[in-house]
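Internal QA ticket QA-208
Title: Verify multi-chain structure generation after dependency bump
Assignee: T.L.

Test input:
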Amino acid sequence: MFLELSQIKRAFGEGESRVEVLKGIDLQIEKGEFCVLLGPSGSGKSTLLNIIGGIDTADSGYISINGEKTADMNEKALTKYRRKHLGYIFQMYNLIPNLNIKENVEVGAYLSDQPLEVDELLKTLGLYEHRHKLPNQLSGGQQQRTAIGRALVKNPDILLCDEPTGALDYKTSKEILALIDDVHKKYGTTVVMVTHNDAIKNMADRVVSLRDGMIRKNYLNETKLTVDELEW
Amino acid sequence: MRDPLNKRLGRQLREELGKYVIIFLFFVMMIGAVSGFIISDTGMINAYNESFEKYNIEDGNLEFMLGPDKDTIEDIENDGGIKLYENFYKDEETDSFDSTLRIYGERDEIDRLCLWEGEFPSADDDIALDRLYAQNHDLKVGSSFEVSGRTLNVCGIVAFSDYSALYEKPSDLMFDNDMFGVGAVTDAGFDAFNDDHLHYNYSWLYDKSPADDVQAQEMSEELMKTAAEKAMLQNFIPAYSNQAIQFAGRDLHNDRTSMLVFLYITMVILAFIFVVTTESTIAKEAAVIGTLRASGYTRGEIVRHYMKLPMYTLTAGAIVGNIVGYTFMEKYMAAAYLGSYSLTTYSVSFSADAFVLTTLIPFVIMFVINLAALTRKLTLSPLKFLRRDLTRGQKKKAFRLNTKIGIMTRFRLRIFFQNLSGYIVIIFGIILGYSILFFGLMFGPMLDNFKEETVNNMIADSIYVLRMPAETEEKSAEKAAMTSLETTFGKYKAEDVSVYGISENSRYVKIDHSGGVTVSTAFMNKYGLKKGDSITLTEKYGDKDYEFEITGFYDYPSTIAVFMDIDDFRETFDMDEGYFNIYFADEKIEDIDEKLIMSRITEDDLTKTSRQMTRSMSGIMTVFKWFGVVMFVMVIYLLAKLIIDKNAQSISMTKILGYSNREINGLYVHTTTIVALLSMLVTLPLVDFLIGAVFKMVFMSYSGYFAYETDLTVMVKCFVTGVVSYSLVAFVLNRGVKKIPLAEALKNAE
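Actual output:
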């Protein structure tokens, strides 16, 4: 198994205000799989994604990637883990505001021994002509493409996407989803995407539905749709 | 209803406690030091100013070559419109330790004494000593010591009102309260010393006091002519130009000005630190501000809110600073002056001046700068705040950087340009910190160097100045002639020039004897003289001018002197053939009657400047060193931390991307490191130049010459201290970067 989560538990707060956000998550994802984590607000999906990404730590349980358990890793090893295996895309893009578009992508490329060709990638993302602009000179969709470029350029094993279309309009959202899907297909990248948009599950290989910190459904999608076919 | 925004202040303070504590402490330190200084300085200046009337300080003093008769005195008094008071003294060598003690008789009418401790002399072997001189030789009330073979008992510790700075001679560059002191004995005790070293000194008071220094100068010039017509003058010095009377007062006043300038420069830098930090807070809280403005909060209310913490910090710092100033610092600062000057007793009281200068004015500076910056920033529309777009006019465009430069270097360059305003304040902070540090570090080596140069370039081990020509069998003795003239450079105060006549085959002074004069390097450097220049010198107690052409320079680094052939000297000053009045000698001359020797100039006389300065300034220099370091650390830390705080989200994001702490420090801390180190390197010569210029300006008003020289070790020490101070800051910053959580990037604040 490529990515394995076992009995992941996570709670916030102390005493009476303690809230259990994840109540023992077991999940396995195959290499090259496109997995969508679905659920309403407060279901724990973003927390789960952050734990997979090594941004947050589980109170108990473990995550293993290619047989390596993240719980056994110190800070240095965790950094290496993120550097080597992960690409991250956020709802609010999180670009570095004082770097131009190309430089934001290059920041990602710097981390990889075998990065993708930056200019080529920018062309693929439709950003080449905007490469000298600052993030605040671009639209939300263009900024999200930049964030995708930054995540992809280092050719990660897993692409973690936290509501990547949450701040975008319908048309731009579909463009972004198509882009992620293309990458997934072209490079065989494992994708874990958190969304509350039910329609997006239709493009996934695996659908995991969370509610109240527990997995309610976990199934392989037999009737995959293309991004064009998605409607919401 | 109370402003609900006030509830945020406590939280904001807790969040940035480190910053506010540092700024608070700095205020306390600055205001404490400056108010302590001003309070003690004001007390001393008042006491000094009042002392002229209280102790009846003279309008000047003159010394006759020979004791004048009663008629001569009356003539001078009548013709000069003055009253002369006998104020004879005897310069005696102390046997118990190495020094010259100037002994006066009772002073009941003029230049009265201020008693610090004990009582005035009543027995013949009682002596009241100057406080500092006594202190330097461990003499207390009840102590005894030997002077010219007599044992004297210290009955009192006093301040001589006409010796607030212990200048032995008017031409001395600096006073020396270790090698020279003053004491008062009873008239009978005075007569008990033999008259070998008696000086016929009289102090005068004008019948009608001059209105100002200009009138005092005119009156004294008239008086000098009158007195010189009636008797041979050995010395003539009006009070307005008597360093022993004036120096301490001027120094108290000048230091006050320097201290205030220093305080205000620091306040402006602090205000800019506040502006930069507040602007960063505004950027961080743009959405909140936008929401508040959209909800109906006025710009004024928001400005007031963001001004509160800086102003509260200043208020707290000012209150504590004033308390520290009035209690601890006042004594510390006073001790620095009392350790240098022989001041009369003074008292400390609340000073409205000090409050205005040290508290009110910094408060206004901070208020105005903060208000202006915040008001300008908050003129943006609520919508712009909501969109987190704090740019004015068009959106900021990215300038291009050559893509051949590696991404990490470009990243650093972007960080540099993003934080340019902060870095500029850092550079100014470094210049200020450096100046203080440099000043603290350079003095010791400079004084040592001055001493070494002076000793290495002495003409002879001793110069004997004779009252009249006398022969000696001493082999090392060489005859020469000397007189004193004054400079006539219009824009500078006139000062004494020693003019020497040198024998052609002199073993001590090698000069060109083919006409013209050779001037000392001190003279050359101080007034920028060149070969071929012509200088006009004038008689001290007359109005005859002498013009000389400079034909060369003689390495004599501490004395303003002119050397010429002895025959030319005799001709120029109308002296007989064979005239001489000094001996240069490497060995002691034993066979000339002491009465015929007016003075003996030795290494001690030439190096008194460096000794006194070392004594007066070593304590305060330590304060300067530490203050410089604190300034360095504070400015760099506050602004560099701000850069980290401002980029917390980007730092967090780079962590998520997989950058290690080391790499992130390489971006965000090393940029500051590069700026700090480069600034330290580049501004060092600038600081050297600035201090040199100030130094030269200050010392132009002093007699004699003191070369401003800094050796490489001072530069290196300054740089190393800077680097070590910065390393401390960098260490804390590195830890700060490490502490930024990965979750910071998840905050919805793009």
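Spot checks passed. The domain at 32-61+75-229 of chain A is CATH 3.40.50.300 (Rossmann fold).
Status: verified.
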